[in-house]
Design goal:
Layout (H helix, E strand, L loop, with lengths): L1 E2 L7 E2 L9 H16 L5 H8 L3 H4 L4 H21 L1 H21 L3 H10 L4 H14 L2 H15 L1 H17 L2 H21 L11 H5 L2 H5 L2 H31 L4 H8 L1 H20 L1 H24 L5 H29 L4 H26 L7 H28 L5
Antiparallel strand pairs: 1-2
Helix pairs in contact: 1-7, 1-8, 1-9, 1-10, 4-5, 4-6, 4-7, 4-18, 5-6, 5-7, 5-10, 7-8, 7-18, 8-15, 8-17, 9-14, 9-15, 13-14, 13-16, 13-17, 13-18, 13-19, 15-16, 15-17, 16-17, 16-19, 17-18
């Protein structure tokens, strides 16, 4: 299969001499999303299996995110130095080994260790975006990232339902067998399809890591990074708290929790579609602003419904589609902005920006889990999501205000 996109040379599918096909990038990004949420409906059953509490087994979410954040600090610079292809293959291989460890784990501690190690799949998300920035300018890369993540958004739409169904039919380990087999398939796909896109670096690995201060001194990088972090923070808080809200507050079984849980992905799909369609027309700043506004609107409406005493599973999960829409508008465009601050450091920027976003998300996931009790209902989660959404909106408004005052797109 051949494909030519924009001003790029011809891309040949399953040809290691050309850049990876867009389908490969979609599958890589989708795998990262699947690993994060496919097993969530099984958390109560996993707690029973290991003889522990829900709070302990729920650590598999924030600890995974923390490790993912740390790894991204190294994945980006390593790929700028060694190349995207080599780092991608290593990351996927380590992920498959970690998944095997989850399947064989005899106790909670061992399971959590290997679950944390599954964070090597972050390589797929970070480098799929860096590869796109290698090939496109800022607005074009935002558009392509939008289309890639639109395809990726199909995964969280169906993954929780698939995970819940597998758990009811075959037990919780079935979801990890799914991850294991898909990981092996991706290794083969990357090996045969992914050509190198990064320019060869003559710097040592230590010198490559020394480029971080160049990014850290850029207000524009921080503006995009924090807008993405706060906007996605609402979603990560949802990841940490929604399983509790669905199972305890609304008494949903694993299958229906999986069905409801994927509601943000519906909005995320359409948000990424709009990004792909309009990013080059309106620019990344406008798209990020609209995304943060949609995110905040979803949190505001949901909280208002609960304060009026009419909150239900349908309204709670239904309003999460606006949160997903906002993330679909904000994240691809903010990512393109981050990666365009210093194009020669696209991998490093992808890693650092991802670490900020995921690290903050892990903190919010922990906080959401800690605040929720049967007595509080969904209110702590709703307030947390709303406050982070507003913070993201303020960040991008400050970036826009600064650029207007200067009259230039300066760093």
């Amino acid at each position: 299969m051949n494909e030519s996109i924009g001003n790029l040379p011809l891309i040949r599918f399953l040809d290691r001499g050309t850049p990876p096909h867009i389908a490969t990038l979609i599958l890589l990004a989708g795998m990262s999303a699947l690993v994060m949420n496919v097993f969530l409906p099984s958390l109560p059953a996993m707690a029973d299996h290991f003889g522990t509490t829900y709070a302990i087994i729920n650590l598999s979410v924030p600890l995974y995110l923390f490790c993912s954040a740390i790894l991204q600090l190294f994945i980006g610079p390593a790929s700028d130095n060694l190349g995207r292809r080599k780092v991608m293959l290593w990351g996927l291989s380590l992920f498959v080994l970690a998944t095997a460890g989850c399947l064989l784990a005899p106790n909670t501690g061992t399971f959590l260790f290997f679950r944390i190690a599954q964070a090597f799949i972050a390589t797929a998300m970070v480098l799929s975006r860096a590869v796109i920035r290698d090939m496109y300018d800022q607005d074009q890369s935002a558009s392509v990232i939008g289309y890639v993540t639109m395809g990726m958004a199909l995964v969280p739409m169906i993954a929780p339902a698939v995970g819940g169904g597998l758990e009811q039919l075959f037990g919780w380990k079935a979801t990890f067998w799914l991850m294991f087999l898909l990981g092996l398939g991706l290794i083969a796909l990357v090996y045969f399809d992914m050509g190198e896109t990064a320019q060869t670096s003559d710097k040592s690995m230590l010198a490559q890591f020394g480029e971080y201060p160049e990014l850290l001194r850029s207000p524009r990088f921080w503006g995009y990074a924090m807008a993405a972090a706060f906007c996605s923070g609402a979603f990560f808080a949802y990841l940490g708290g929604a399983p509790f809200v669905g199972s305890v507050v609304f008494d949903l079984d694993p299958f229906w929790l999986g069905i409801y849980f994927g509601s943000p992905a519906v909005g995320y799909f359409f948000g990424n579609f709009l990004t792909g369609r309009y990013a080059t027309r309106f620019g990344v700043n406008a798209m990020v602003m609209w995304g943060c506004f949609a995110n905040a609107t979803g949190g505001t409406v949901s909280l208002a419904i609960f304060l009026s005493g009419h909150g239900s599973a349908l309204t709670f999960f239904g309003m999460m589609t606006l949160v997903g829409l906002g993330n679909g508008l904000c994240i691809p465009n903010a990512t393109a902005g981050m990666l365009s601050v210093r194009p020669h450091l696209a991998g490093t920027a992808a890693g650092l920006g991802g670490a900020i976003m995921i690290g903050g998300g892990a903190t919010l996931a922990v906080l959401a889990g800690a605040l929720l009790t049967p007595e509080t209902g969904a209110f702590p989660l709703l307030w947390l999501m709303l406050l982070t959404a507003i913070a993201g909106l303020l960040c991008i408004l400050l970036v826009i205000r600064r650029e207007k005052a200067l009259g230039l797109h300066l760093n």
